[in-house]
Amino acid sequence: MRKEKHANIMFLRAYNAGITAKSLLTAFAASLAMSERLKNKPLYKVFMGLSTDILLWVLYFVALYFSIFILTIFVFESEKTHKKPHTCPLVSIIIPAWNEEKSIRETVESTLHLNYPQDKLQIIAVNHGSDDKTGKILDSIKGIEVLHITRKKGDNKAVAFNKGLARAEGKFVACLDADSVVSAEALNDMLPYFAESEKVAVVTPSMLIKSPKNLLQWLQKYEYIVSLFVKRLSSHINCIYVAPGPFSLYRTSILKELGGFDEKAIAEDMEIVYRLQKNQYIAKQCLKGGYSYVAAPNTIKELYKQRQRWYGGSLSNIYQYRKLAFNRRYGDFGFFQMPKNLMGVVTVFTTLALFAYFALWPLARKAYYFFVIRFEIMPYLLNPNINLNIFTLKNVQGAFVVLILMIISLIFFICACRMANEKMQKATIPVLLVFFTVYPLMLCVMYLMVAFKKMLRQDFVWDKMAR
Amino acid sequence: MAREILKRRYLFVLIATVIVFSLGVTLGILVNETKSRIMEKEIATQNMDDLSLQLQLTYLNFLDLNSSEGCKVMNAALEQSWKNLATSYGNLIKYKDSFEATDEDIRYFERNDLLNNIRYWLLLKEAKTYCELQDSVAVLFFFSETNCDECDSQSQLLEHYKRVFNERFLLFHINMDIGEPMAQILLNQYDINSYPSIVIGVDKFSGLTGKDALKEEICKRFKYKQPECEK
Question: Residue A362's pLDDT is what?
Answer without folding.
Answer: 84
